[in-house]
């Protein structure tokens, strides 16, 4: 697997990261190096090995259905750059 | 399968629905914040829902149980192992920058939903899958010209996304599908089905093809939040696609946004690139592994569902498919009907007729619901008993019922107060008949000469009128025939 300049631009856009044209050129090489390195794993035969989703051998812990949290907007909003009337306020986004 | 007549021949609709049903639970899918509707902004938000750094999600057992119950109600395969994944996209009301959802391994696999069509027939619609996911927050765009306000109360509430197979062939079938799905969800108690409050939301996938040909390219119309709008959106999109195809164009696979005010949809071009969601298993959550006993326990507690109840009503009570369908659509209505029956030895068909026509009619007209209606099951049953034993005629029973509805009194009291008791005493009826015969020699002549045998009906009418509707019509008929020598 390898990426080209268009893919790098696309990924940057999806991640909302601004990448200057010169940086993008350099990133193609860097990302391909990383991908090549990871691809060494493909040399292992993992045909009958189920994907490992965690290093912890245990099931999903479950919580009881009780309201134990919320009820206080202040800490939720405290770090917001802007808020008003209990809402987060962001620049207008409309489809 | 509804065919659309285009300029160049017939077209067939292929529709699949994605329904987002909000799970009934006290707390959210991965946090302990409340799910209650209509609270003040951001008052039901934990730091997990606000995606503060370092916060970890912990799955709510009841939300899992609700998804399994729903899967069982849809006769679907329950997957004992399922995996939560991250669906990545940016939007201000999605603070995590991803939605925790299920993708390759949903909790519920294939099932089936039987829809009821207006002509009494049924059709099986395949269920593709059901998965659990988080809801997003709510953005308000119309409060300020330059700013958007975000409320995260809904953020993290559990949703079930229920995806149908593309087995739906018309707007009518789509409506029947949502009706039936909502009815099942309400029976199960897994979603309140309230479309006004957004507890049930629907996306429409639609493509057109020539009958018998392979599937065409589909579009997805979002934001259709009532059954009527779903049907409008389908009609609109089917027409639009036929026009494009017949003009030699191609359908773009795209997301469209329905505008309920205009009854139209428009392309959401901005969504296109964002469709690259880069799913991957959520490293904060282990695979969900269920024990078969857990599933069996839930299956054992499942209530009787609408289809089973309908079959039982038809078999045990001899009801028509239509009456049974009306009664089972809402669990509370079916329970009301059965409590009317339970109060005594009552004719199930007569009871069904009174419940569906007169009683539901009065509920609708007065805008009340079962819980605070002035006439309860016992009182309605009392009226049915008075009809059955001949105390009131069916015609006067309607008058009695109206008076019961207005006053809240029971049927026997109304009959007594208003003097509406049916006259079954032959002597009393005979006296009225004699008077009517004596007063109308002309009509008697018409009857006895054989010139107009139908005049007997007129006599019955006169006697009923003279008795203020209280005479038993059967007895009146008998006595008249005897007296007139018929």
Automatic annotation (TrEMBL), chain A:
UniProtKB keywords: ATP-binding, Ligase, Nucleotide-binding, Protein biosynthesis
Enzyme Commission numbers on file: 6.3.5.-
Matches recorded under Gene3D superfamilies: Glu-tRNAGln amidotransferase C subunit, N-terminal domain
Catalytic activity of the protein: L-aspartyl-tRNA(Asn) + L-glutamine + ATP + H2O = L-asparaginyl-tRNA(Asn) + L-glutamate + ADP + phosphate + 2 H(+); L-glutamyl-tRNA(Gln) + L-glutamine + ATP + H2O = L-glutaminyl-tRNA(Gln) + L-glutamate + ADP + phosphate + H(+)
Family affiliation: Belongs to the GatC family.
Role played: Allows the formation of correctly charged Asn-tRNA(Asn) or Gln-tRNA(Gln) through the transamidation of misacylated Asp-tRNA(Asn) or Glu-tRNA(Gln) in organisms which lack either or both of asparaginyl-tRNA or glutaminyl-tRNA synthetases. The reaction takes place in the presence of glutamine and ATP through an activated phospho-Asp-tRNA(Asn) or phospho-Glu-tRNA(Gln).
HAMAP family according to UniProt: GatC (MF_00122)
Subunit structure comment from the entry: Heterotrimer of A, B and C subunits.
Protein name: Aspartyl/glutamyl-tRNA(Asn/Gln) amidotransferase subunit C
Organism, as annotated: Aquibaculum arenosum
Gene: gatC
UniProtKB/TrEMBL annotation, chain B:
Asn/Gln amidotransferase domain mapped to chain residues: 335-484
One Pfam family named in its UniProt record: GatB_N
Matches recorded under InterPro entries: Asn/Gln-tRNA_amidoTrfase_suB/E (IPR017959), Asn/Gln-tRNA_Trfase_suB/E_cat (IPR006075), Asn/Gln_amidotransferase (IPR018027), Asn/Gln_tRNA_amidoTrase-B-like (IPR003789), GatB (IPR004413), GatB_C_1 (IPR042114), GatB_Yqey_C_2 (IPR023168), Gln-tRNA_amidoTrfase_suB_CS (IPR017958)
EC main group: ligase
Catalytic activity field: L-glutamyl-tRNA(Gln) + L-glutamine + ATP + H2O = L-glutaminyl-tRNA(Gln) + L-glutamate + ADP + phosphate + H(+); L-aspartyl-tRNA(Asn) + L-glutamine + ATP + H2O = L-asparaginyl-tRNA(Asn) + L-glutamate + ADP + phosphate + 2 H(+)
Keyword set includes DNA damage: no
The EC number(s) this enzyme carries: 6.3.5.-
SMART domains referenced in this protein's UniProt entry, alphabetically: GatB_Yqey
The entry's keywords: ATP-binding, Ligase, Nucleotide-binding, Protein biosynthesis
UniProt KW Protein biosynthesis keyword: yes
Subunit structure: Heterotrimer of A, B and C subunits.
Functional note: Allows the formation of correctly charged Asn-tRNA(Asn) or Gln-tRNA(Gln) through the transamidation of misacylated Asp-tRNA(Asn) or Glu-tRNA(Gln) in organisms which lack either or both of asparaginyl-tRNA or glutaminyl-tRNA synthetases. The reaction takes place in the presence of glutamine and ATP through an activated phospho-Asp-tRNA(Asn) or phospho-Glu-tRNA(Gln).
Protein family according to the UniProt entry: Belongs to the GatB/GatE family. GatB subfamily.
UniProt protein name: Aspartyl/glutamyl-tRNA(Asn/Gln) amidotransferase subunit B
Native species: Aquibaculum arenosum
Taxonomic lineage from the root: Bacteria, Pseudomonadati, Pseudomonadota, Alphaproteobacteria, Rhodospirillales
């Amino acid at each position: 697997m390898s990426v080209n300049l268009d893919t790098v631009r696309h990924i940057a856009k999806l991640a909302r990261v601004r990448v200057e044209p010169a940086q993008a050129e350099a990133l193609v090489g860097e990302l391909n190096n990383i991908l090549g390195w990871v691809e060494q794993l493909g040399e292992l035969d993992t045909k009958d090995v189920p994907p490992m989703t965690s290093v912890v051998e245990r099931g999903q812990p479950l919580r009881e259905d009780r309201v134990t949290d919320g009820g206080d907007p202040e800490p939720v909003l405290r770090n917001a750059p802007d808020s008003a009337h209990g809402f987060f306020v962001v620049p207008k986004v409309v489809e | 399968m509804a065919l659309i007549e285009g300029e160049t021949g017939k077209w067939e609709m292929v529709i699949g629905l994605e329904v987002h049903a909000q799970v009934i639970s006290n707390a959210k899918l991965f946090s302990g914040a409340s799910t209650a509707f209509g609270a003040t902004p951001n008052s039901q938000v934990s730091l997990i829902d606000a995606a503060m750094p370092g916060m970890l999600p912990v799955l709510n057992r009841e939300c899992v149980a609700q998804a399994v119950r729903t899967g069982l109600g849809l006769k679907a395969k329950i997957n004992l192992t399922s995996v939560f994944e991250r669906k990545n996209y940016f939007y201000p009301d999605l603070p995590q920058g991803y939605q925790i959802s299920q993708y390759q391994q949903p909790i519920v696999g294939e099932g089936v939903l039987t829809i009821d069509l207006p002509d009494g027939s049924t059709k099986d619609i395949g269920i593709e899958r059901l998965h659990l996911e988080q809801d997003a927050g709510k953005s308000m765009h119309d409060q300020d010209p330059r700013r958007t306000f975000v409320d995260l109360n809904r953020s993290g509430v559990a949703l079930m996304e229920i995806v149908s197979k593309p087995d739906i062939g018309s707007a009518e079938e789509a409506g029947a599908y949502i009706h039936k799905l909502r009815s099942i969800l309400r029976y199960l108690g897994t979603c309140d089905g309230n479309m006004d409050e957004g507890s049930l939301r629907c996306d429409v996938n639609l493509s057109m093809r020539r009958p018998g040909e392979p599937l065409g390219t589909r579009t997805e119309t979002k934001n259709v939040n009532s059954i009527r709008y779903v049907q409008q959106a389908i009609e609109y999109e089917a027409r639009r696609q036929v026009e494009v195809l017949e003009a030699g164009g191609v359908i773009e696979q795209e997301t469209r946004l329905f505008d309920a005010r205009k009854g139209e949809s428009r392309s959401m071009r901005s969504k296109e690139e964002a469709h690259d969601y880069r799913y991957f298993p959520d490293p904060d959550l282990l695979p969900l592994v269920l024990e078969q006993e857990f599933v069996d326990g839930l299956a054992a507690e499942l209530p009787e569902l609408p289809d089973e109840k309908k079959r039982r009503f038809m078999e045990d009570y001899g009801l028509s498919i239509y009456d049974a369908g009306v009664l089972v659509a809402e669990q509370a209505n079916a329970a009301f009907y059965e409590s009317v029956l339970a109060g005594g030895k009552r004719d199930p068909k007569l009871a069904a007729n009174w419940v569906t026509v007169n009683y539901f009619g009065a509920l609708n007209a007065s805008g009340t619901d079962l819980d605070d209606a002035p006439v309860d099951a016992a009182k309605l049953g009392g009226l049915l008993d008075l009809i059955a034993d001949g105390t009131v005629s069916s015609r006067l029973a309607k008058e009695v019922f109206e008076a019961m509805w207005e006053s809240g009194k029971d049927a026997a009291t109304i009959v007594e107060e208003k003097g509406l008791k049916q006259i079954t005493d032959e002597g009393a009826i005979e006296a009225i008949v004699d008077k009517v015969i004596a007063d109308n020699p002309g009509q008697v002549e018409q009857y006895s000469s054989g010139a107009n045998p139908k005049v007997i009906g007129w006599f019955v009418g006169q006697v009923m009128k003279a008795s203020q509707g209280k005479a038993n019509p059967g007895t009146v008929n008998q006595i008249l025939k005897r007296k007139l020598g018929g």
